[in-house]
Amino acid sequence: SGMGVERAFPLHGPCVDKVEVMMVGRVRRAKLYYRRNLQGKAARIKELRQR
Predict the structure, then answer these.
(1) How do residues 13-39 score in pLDDT, each as one tens digit?
(2) Number of structural domains found in the chain
């Protein structure tokens, strides 16, 4: 099928045990809605390096 699905979960709901950060990316804006239209390598975000 290859169709992506967006889903929102309430952070303080009973079904959420913990939230763990897997990767930190470098982005220049808070809302990343423009990424919905991108596919493949264009949709990637550069990984943020620790100094």
Answers:
(1) 898 899 899 889 999 999 988 888 888
(2) 1
> What amino acid occupies position 23?
M
Q: Residue 33: which domain range?
A: 1-51
Model pTM?
Answer: 0.51
Structure-token match 């045990």, residue found: 17
What token pair was written down for 10? 């309430």
Burial class (CB in 10 A: 0-12, 13-18, 19+), 7: exposed
Q: Amino acid identity of 5?
A: V
C-alpha distance from residue 48 to each of 2, 3, 25 (Å): 28, 28, 5
Question: 3-state DSSP helix/strand/coil percent for the chain, to nearest 5?
Answer: 20, 5, 80
